[in-house]
Amino acid sequence: SGGLFPFKVLVQPQDGAVDSAAFFERARGLVRRALDLSGEAGALNATGVMMAGATDVPYDMVHQALHGSAQQCDVLARLLQRDACAEVRVAWAQFTNGDVDAGVNATATFVTVALDFDAFSARGVQWIRAMRAGLAQAANESQGLDCVGLSGGSLPMVDSVNLVYSYYPVMVGVTLGVVFALLGIAFRSLVVPLRAVLTISLSLVLTMGCAWLVYGRGALDGLGWVALSGQGALTWSAPVLAFPIMVGLGLDYDIFLLGRILEYRLAAYTDVESVTAGVEHSGPLISAAGVIMAIAFGALLFSSSTSLNELAFLLTASVLVDTFLVRTVLVPSVMGLLGKRNWWPRTLPPPLPPMTLMPLPPPPVGEPPSGGSGASLRGDGLPDYETIQSTHDAAHAAIMQARLSMTGEGEHAGSGDHQPLEHAGPGDPAFVSTDDGDAGAAVGASASGDRTGDSVTSPAASPTTTRS
User: Is 332 helix (H, G, I), strand (E, B) or coil?
Assistant: First the structure.
């Protein structure tokens, strides 16, 4: 693409006179000096009104072709065996901003530089940097008599990429800063957003590292799959497009898991128990969602576009790393180690001790079975499942109301429409033994109702311990 997209070296004399022998000499020397400094002089073809490759175009011939008479042009044509005047006039109109026929003097000119290698490759980008530095040095050496610049070729793309990546760290910082602020406000904690930002960043680093190994180092070239073959580098657009999507998905899964853990923690679970229960109930859903997204993103690996292949790999790898490693392994481990410090500086209600539910003994011999007011008994004298479940729900509501009345935590955790947790153990007309006297009394009153005389408490009677 070096010949298809030639570069232009712009030269503007400070005195505004392109049509002069002195300028021709300075311009030729400046361009060739810059090409030498770029380190690619032998791989270039420079063409302009004053030079054609390695050949200098004499100023006298150019001046005669532009301003000479018809007879002089005929003599020049016979000497060169071609219409030199016409060729010079065409070149003058092409390479300068002047118009001889209209009497407009040229005040600037340019020299096209064609590379014999890909202008969009890493070598082309390196040449652009070297050429710009060479032009600046050559202009200084000429005592600033001419203004020079470089344009055309792959320069618009290279400059656009440089501009995008100059703001890329700002975008990363602002995005993660917004994530930190929103999570801090939502969960009223500093540790929660800090841990989330760090784990999301870890997922990003792992994904970008895998992408570099695959496309930069060719780690999967042995598969023979073009979509995963090494390219020597990543395309510039893939990381930019993938970053916000990866952050959004990672944050979504993190909030999904964290919200469930906080729900159990507000339901009187300990810190470790709430993390365990949250992962147990949310982990499979997060993993399933990650697999679905990975399949959707992975479809782009069958595209013939390299940039789409790299984007697909980044998104697919990010989702899999996040769902199977970070959210379901790393985050629970960190939260389990932090314990109550997970929510700092927010103070959550203290977890309630485990409840000991004691089954009722069979009725005394000689007395008819009685399940109390509205109770339904089985043949062996014990309450049936429906009675156990309804009484357990009442006990659960009572213990949550008692805890909230003592701690003053938000109403949402103990409101009337709060549903009991799925894994809570059974609770019959039985006494609930806890270490908290007030809460135990409240629960005992609610659970036993009018049947306090039928309730027994015995720590040694093989109790069934559950968390409600």
Answer: helix
Query: 114-149 burial by CB neighbour count: b if 16+ within 10 A, else e?
Result: bbeeebebeebbebbebbbebbeebbeeeeeebebe
Which residues are registered as beta bridge partners of 142?
Answer: none
pTM: 0.67
pLDDT of the residue at 160: 92
| Buried-state track 299-334, b at ≥16 Cβ within 10 A, e below 16 | ebbeeeebebbbbbbbbbbbbbbbbbebbbebbbeb
What gap in Å lies between CA 217 and CA 211, rounded to an integer? 9
DSSP strand E in 116-266: where?
146-152
Spatial neighbors of 104 by CB under 8 A, at least 6 apart, are 97, 98
The dihedral over CA atoms of 72, 76, 78, 80, expressed in degrees to the nearest 10, equals 180
Q: Which residues does the chain have with pLDDT short of 70? A: 1-3, 41-43, 144, 353-389, 391-393, 395-397, 399-468
Exposed, middle or buried: residue 44 (CB in 10 Å: 0-12, 13-18, 19+)? Answer: buried
Burial class (CB in 10 A: 0-12, 13-18, 19+), 184: middle
Q: Which of 63, 69, 149 has its CA nearest to residue 106? A: 63
Whole-angstrom Cα distance, residue 336 to residue 340?
9
**In sequence order, what are the residues at sequence separation of 6 or more whose Cβ sits closer than 8 angstroms to the Cβ of residue 373?**
449, 450, 451
